[in-house]
Fold this sequence. Notes:
The protein has 14 helices and two strands, in the order ααααααββαααααααα. The protein is an all-alpha fold. Residues 1-20 are annotated as: Disordered.
Amino acid sequence: MPARLHNVAPDALADPGTPGGPGFTLARPEWIAIQAASTDARALPAAAGAFRRSLGPGVPADLSDLDRLLETYATMRAQATAWSEKTYPACVALAGDVQRFGQELAPVYFPRIDDEADLLRRDPHDDQARTALRTLLLELAGEAERASDRADTAAGAVATAAAGAERVETTLVGDDDAGGLSDYYARRYAAARAEVGSLVGDVSAQRRLVRPANDDHDRDVVITSATASYVWVWPLGMVAAPVVAGGYGREAALAVVRAQCAHSRIRSLGDEAAVAARLLIGLDGAVCGATALVRGLTETLPVIRRIRGVWGGIAADLRAVAAVLSDDAAAVPALIEALDVEGALRSWTQVARRAQAYRLVACVDQPTGPSSMGAWQLATQVSSPRSAQPAMAARR
């Protein structure tokens, strides 16, 4: 019989999620980028009144031409809310399963499995040891199966989120057969683009300069097991706080400043041109956000599926050893020895500590003060039904 027929070690769970990072597969920068993009999506106006207020004075009385865009924004906002409130917490909870197995279950079950196997080694006819060992193996297999089921549920939710993000991206940018809303509104506001085109293009360029700096920040905090810190910067959306502060290069910090200047430049435009500028800048941000979500979700889904597979493999191996007890109890001690529960316990102890550390920093830190998304929404009336005057008073 092969010496490594069965296995109870964490294996792929202990693989670094990013090069140079901690040995835990969930520790990946994509989770941070998804959170940032989801927060941006939750800032989108989801109702006609909020949409009208976000565009400012000069909005036409008839908004029917914007119905599809508003519907898409509402979809993005609903998807982001589901991600933030349900799907992502379920993914983070998978780290809790690893932590619990490594800190609570393996330290109790593995030594007892070894002890009962020793008794069977001395006396293959020890029915009490046989029964106790079978119970331990099946109980632990049940724990692994339940963890696998939770990972399977999370994988399904992530797959659903990815499919939804892909549909939104196609709606916005189009496919091989037809252009999307971005192309439509670029043509629709072609006349206004003569006045606002440089402004819209400049904001878009700054957004693309900041993105790699955000990516560098996300990777660095994963490698150091630190908490990602983001602030709200209109019109860019969520930007890593150290990027704004200049910690990731002068070019990225200046890009943030230049993008912020768009606010004063828009106010100097006529009403119709200002509406076009706000619409097109917001649409470009939505496109970037949808693309970021598709990329992040597509890259993280295999990780969740891998976690499901590891738990499923452990459960199957434990049940396989338990089944041998019924046929050939004398062969079980050698199987247990091949499991190397002592080595597996050491591996579980290490990965459990990393899973615990990951859970502590899994959520992006967002301020609640003047630089928060909520403060921006209040000041611009994106979410509030109140009139503009009270909103400005509240901001003061």
